[in-house]
Design a protein that fits this description.
Elements lengths: L1 H5 L2 H19 L1 H7 L4 H6 L2 H19 L2 H4 L8 H11 L5 H21 L11 H16 L4 H24 L3 H28 L26 H21 L3 H21 L2 H18 L4 H14 L2 H8 L7 H20 L8 H7 L16 H34 L3 H20 L9 H18 L14
Helix pairs in contact: 5-8, 7-8, 7-10, 7-11, 8-10, 9-10, 9-19, 10-21, 11-12, 11-13, 12-13, 12-14, 12-20, 12-21, 14-20, 17-19, 19-20, 19-21, 20-21
Length: about 475
């Protein structure tokens, strides 16, 4: 049957069109310039960040040797950073924020200890790291220049720690086996989170519906699983579904492929039951990126799938989806009012921002609120970054995302390992969907999701140099 399909005129026509698009894409000078990062490592090693870090490490190695840390922490669990970072990334959606913060801090300390006692250990440096570091510093400065330092202190420090977790995880994961294990368990935990969400749909959540009951009377339940809010759950699923899709395409053997296919289906079903319109848009965008990068001939599958969704989706889903942009919906009008009030506020505070956290936002925003609408944040990630850290914050974040995209595109274009390529495509598409959804909500408001986004960047950086990671089978003490 497969051979008959491949020899058909329609299939060959679609394949020819797909190959033509591929040649045009890769033949573009702009695209070639964008993905070319051959000298990036040399530039990184010549940067002030690398030189300063190298000098600090030499000092730290001398201090560690003088304090005999090599003997104190020999074979200690506190010199095994992978354990702590693994637990943080895997358990993030199911444990309290403070427990997650504790794991991240111990992981950071463990990386520092390991860097001091293992003099042969080379620290990882991805192209995106310098922007991550600068972004964390900007948030720290914004914390101490806030309109309410005491109100911003906890949120600002927590944000800085979670932002820096990108660099910590990059240096904790040293082998291909460790990266594979980390991604597999993130997907498995994601499956249980999604199953719990599906359970809530059929047996009720006992909470509010978060919808305009006049417009969507058929929606009695929006699931939130372990994340307290359906929109937050959708943001989490936007990160984990592409990872499960990557594992599906990289899996060998019918049993593994079937398992990951079921995982993807359960997660997508849970996404539907969140009834998050921003989440749905993000997932469609992520799926588009993923399939196009896997094989550009999937463009025809995407078109067919879009038509099928419109024709065969239940009325309640079609009604919910087509209501996007309808300002008569209270949820939409609420967001538009907040955006207008925030923009009015930023006319006065665009340069430095007002500081991180709801305390700072609630201190300034009410004087600018539109239609007296109150809110704990700007309901838009990009507006909120400007509120928190001013114009410098959003510029550095934009540069960070551009470099992240460029790093992944370069890796996809040169990687020969199929598993690595699927992870690169998965993280790029997941981040794309997440950032699109962030236009309709402040996706860092839930700190566990914030951490997972920065952990996601670390996974992307590790996948980009997958073939350079050690092929050791040891899991812990590496």
């Amino acid at each position: 049957m497969t051979e008959v399909l491949k020899n058909s005129l329609i299939y060959r026509l679609c394949a020819a069109i797909g190959r033509w698009f591929s040649r045009q894409w890769m033949g573009s000078r702009i695209i070639r310039a964008f993905v070319n990062m051959k000298n990036e490592e040399d530039l990184a090693e010549g940067s002030i960040f690398f030189k300063a870090g190298k000098k600090l490490r030499q000092i730290w190695i001398a201090v560690s040797k003088a304090l005999r840390f090599d003997r104190i922490f020999a074979n200690s669990i506190f010199a095994m950073p992978f354990i702590w970072c693994f637990l943080a990334a895997v358990l993030a959606p199911v444990i309290p924020t403070m427990a997650l913060l504790a794991l991240v801090l111990v992981g950071c300390i463990s990386v520092i200890i390991k860097a001091g006692i293992d003099t042969d250990r080379k620290l990882a440096h991805a192209p995106v790291n310098r922007y991550v570091l600068v972004y964390a510093v900007i948030y720290l400065i914004a914390t101490f220049t806030s309109v309410t330092v005491s109100g911003s202190l906890y949120i600002g420090l927590l944000s800085a720690v979670f932002i820096m977790s990108t660099i910590v995880i990059e240096n904790a994961v040293r082998t291909q086996k460790q990266l594979d294990l980390l991604v597999k368990f993130m997907v498995i935990v994601g499956l249980f989170v999604a199953l719990y969400g599906v359970y809530q749909h059929f047996f009720g959540t006992g909470g509010e519906t978060w919808v305009d009951e006049d417009m969507f009377s058929d929606i009695s339940t929006r699931v939130y699983s372990t994340l307290q809010n359906p929109n937050v759950l959708s943001e989490y699923l936007l990160l984990v579904i592409p990872l499960s899709a990557a594992m599906l395409f990289a899996a060998e053997g019918a049993l593994r492929k079937t398992f990951y296919f079921i995982v993807c289906c359960v997660m997508c079903l849970c996404m539907i039951y969140t009834f998050s319109r921003g989440g749905w848009l993000g997932l469609l965008f992520a799926a588009f990126i993923f399939l196009i990068l896997v094989d550009r001939r999937f463009i025809f599958l995407i078109i067919a799938g879009a038509v099928a969704l419109l024709l065969f989706s239940p009325d309640v889903i079609v009604q919910r989806f087509t209501s996007i942009g309808n300002v008569s919906d209270t949820s939409t009008s609420y967001r538009v009012s907040i955006w207008m009030g925030t923009l009015k506020m930023l006319k006065d505070y665009w340069l430095t921002g007002i500081g991180p956290g709801t305390a700072a936002f609630n201190m300034v925003y009410p004087a600018y609120s539109y239609n007296t609408v109150s809110a704990p944040h700007a309901h838009n990630l990009y507006l909120q970054i400007i509120c928190d850290a001013g114009i410098a914050g959003i510029i550095v974040f934009a540069l960070l995302i551009i470099v992240f995209i460029r790093m992944n595109c370069h890796a996809i274009s040169v990687t020969t390992n199929r598993k690595a390529k699927m992870l690169q495509i998965g993280t790029l598409s997941g981040a794309g969907g997440f950032l699109l959804q962030s236009m309709t909500d402040y996706s860092f408001y839930n700190y566990r999701v914030m951490f997972l986004f920065w952990a996601y960047l670390a996974i992307a950086a590790l996948a980009a140099r997958y073939e350079k990671l050690s092929d050791s089978r040891h899991i812990l003490n590496v």
